[in-house]
Amino acid sequence: MFNVVLVEPEIPPNTGNVGRLCLATESTLHLVKPFGFSLDDRQLKRAGLDYWDDVDLRTWDSFEDLQSAQSSGARYFFLTTKTDRAYHNVRFQGGDFLVFGRETKGLPEKLLEANIDNCVTIPMHGTRSLNLATAVAIVLFEAVRQQR
Ligand SMILES: C[S@@+](CC[C@H](N)C(=O)[O-])C[C@H]1O[C@@H](n2cnc3c(N)ncnc32)[C@H](O)[C@@H]1O
User: Fold this and answer.
1) Using an 8 Å Cβ cutoff, are 102 and 5 in contact?
2) Which of 15, 106, 119, 122 has the most CB atoms lying inside 10 A of its own CB?
């Protein structure tokens, strides 16, 4: 239904949880290297429970490789705290790519600058950012809700 992209994920349980979210929404999980763990990591599989092997998983050497393998009409939304455009004001379409950054550093500044019109945030206060898997759940299920 949707495409969830984790750019350089570092923490295995987060990626395992995001895998379950993707399975639950019939979405594809794209992981962009380098990862902070091995795909055989026990913590990754534990967080993904028995479902990890059923996740529609694609891995990429770089974000550019991912993009060049998609059709020219593919739409990308970059999730960051560094914009004012709220996710709930976006009209998502099936097949959209929802792109999330690494746990310690977020998405690369260059990627955000090059896609400034497609940056989206989850409004919040009192903390610098949300947990990665939590952020994915919020935006992915809003996108799914809009399709129903
Ligand atoms: C733990 S956060 C990264 C924190 C990092 N220190 C930063 O300043 O970007 C991991 C990823 O979750 C997503 N995320 C977390 N909170 C978010 C929010 N309020 N709005 C949009 N994306 C968020 C972003 O994609 C972010 O790159």
Assistant:
1) no
2) 15
Sign of CA dihedral 7, 13, 145, 58: positive
Token output for 77? 């939304």
- CA of 7, closest atom in ligand 1: 27
Query: Ligand 1: which residues within 6 Å by Cβ?
Result: 79-81, 100-101, 103, 105-107, 121-122, 124, 128-130, 132, 135
pLDDT tens for 17-62 read: 999 999 999 999 999 999 998 888 788 777 667 788 899 999 999 9
Residue-wise pLDDT for 84-134, tens only, equals 999 999 999 999 999 999 999 999 999 999 999 999 999 999 999 999 999
CA angle 49, 54, 60 (to 5 degrees): 105
Q: Looking up tokens 């705290």, which residue turns up? A: 81
Residue 60 CB-density burial (10 A; 0-12 exposed, 13-18 middle, 19+ buried): middle
pTM score, whole prediction: 0.96
